[in-house]
Amino acid sequence: MISEISSNSASPIIVWFRKDLRLRDHPCLHAAMLAGQKIIPVFIWDSEEGGQWSPGASSRWWLHHALQSLAKEIKSLGGQLILKKGKAAEILPLLAQESYADKVFYSRTYDPYSIATQESVEEALDDARVETESFNSSLLQEPWEMKNGTGKPFQVFTPYWRKSRPVIYREPAVYEISKLPFTPHPLPSDSLESLALLPDYSWQQKLESHWSVSEDAAHQQLERTVHEVTHSYATRRNYPAVDGTSRLSPYLAWGLISPRQICHSVLQAETEGSHRGENKFLVEIGWREFSYHLLYHFPSIPDQPLRAKYASFPWIEDKINLKRWQFGNTGYPMVDAGMRQLYESGWMHNRVRMIVASFLVKHLLLSWNDGARWFWDTLVDADLASNTQGWQWAAGCGADAAPYFRIFNPITQGEKFDGRGEYAKRWIPQLESLPSKWIFRPWEAPAEILKTHGVDLGGNYPEPCIDHSEGRTRALAALATLKTP
Question: Is 254 considered catalytic here?
Answer without folding.
Answer: no
